[in-house]
Design a protein that fits this description.
Shape: globular
Number of strands: 8
Distance between the termini: 14 Å
Strand order of the largest sheet: 1-2-3-4-5-6-7-8
Oligomer: single chain
Order of helices and strands: EHHEHEHEHHEHHEHHEHEH
CATH superfamily: Aldolase class I
Strand content: 5-15%
CATH architecture: Alpha-Beta Barrel
CATH topology: TIM Barrel
Number of helices: 12
Bound molecules: 1,3-dihydroxyacetonephosphate
Largest sheet: 8 strands, parallel, barrel
Length: 262
């Protein structure tokens, strides 16, 4: 049984002070957060991570980062490594978000190397994939997602001999045209791509791994529509941008998923 995951991606929003204020206000919803059977997670900017962990942990909300470098240390000015995130008690890291691919030229191979490092350091990678509107209209969604995931699955296949836990992988399907646009994917379309992603995992890593890997949907998810995605058989949660920024809205996302997991 895969545990559902409600993950907030704050992107480049919230100073440390604002992040602390969020977690203080979130305590109003502590009972709800403590009594769910699914996981909830905030992926905050690096500068807010240190100040967030303790209060979020008291509400069983986990902490994650939005990126990391593939090396554990080195002369990489401005970068942050997996051991640094681990020490701040991060359990997850988002990798290959479309904004990083688009604005910071992250390649499929680089994302795969980062994912391997994260797994090696016992951080759960949330690897993001998804097509542009142009690609969707050209009927290329499956081939784009296959291309993006290929190096990750290939690396996992060869690494599983080294006993990395392939099943710790989380894959987020985020169609780029749905991000921040208010134009979310139809749940049945998102489910179709999630099923395709699972079939790719089956082909590379086998059906056991495929039945354990979690696949999230992201793109204009709100409390009003989250259930329509998370109730799909191949969708195990959501990666949420804008609607995760306010405590009441984040709590409402968690509450909505609780209606189908309790
Ligand atoms: O990019 C996203 C999450 O990673 C989605 O953002 P929105 O929920 O704001 O559309």
């Amino acid at each position: 049984m895969r545990t559902k995951l409600v993950a907030g991606n704050w992107k480049m929003y919230k100073t440390l002070r604002e992040a602390r204020s969020f977690s203080e206000q979130l305590t109003e919803f502590a009972d709800l957060l403590l009594n769910t059977r699914h996981e909830s997670l905030i992926c905050a900017p690096f500068t807010a991570l240190f100040g967030l962990h303790d209060q979020l942990a008291q509400m069983h909300v986990k902490l994650g980062a939005q990126n990391m470098h593939e090396m554990a240390e080195g002369a990489f000015t401005g970068e942050v490594s997996a051991p640094m995130l681990k020490e701040l008690q991060c359990e997850y890291v988002i990798l290959g978000h479309s904004e990083r691919r688009q604005y910071f030229a992250e390649s499929d191979d680089a994302v795969a190397r980062k994912a391997m490092t994260a797994l090696d350091q016992m951080l759960t990678p949330i690897v993001c994939v998804g097509e542009t509107l142009e690609e969707r209209e050209a009927g290329a969604t499956r081939s784009v997602v296959s291309r993006q995931l290929g190096p990750v699955l290939q690396a996992l296949k060869s690494q599983s001999a080294k006993e990395l836990d392939a099943t710790a992988l989380v894959i987020a399907y985020e169609p780029i045209w749905a991000i921040g646009s208010g134009r979310s994917s139809e749940a049945k379309d998102a489910e179709e791509v999630a099923a395709w992603i699972r079939s790719l995992v089956t082909a590379s890593l086998g059906s056991d791994a495929a039945s354990q890997v979690r696949v999230l949907y992201g793109g204009s998810v709100k409390p009003e529509n989250i259930v329509s995605y998370v109730e799909q058989p191949n969708i195990d949660g959501a990666l949420v941008g804008g609607a995760s920024l306010q405590p009441a809205s984040f709590a409402a996302l968690v509450q909505q998923v609780a209606t189908i997991t309790s």
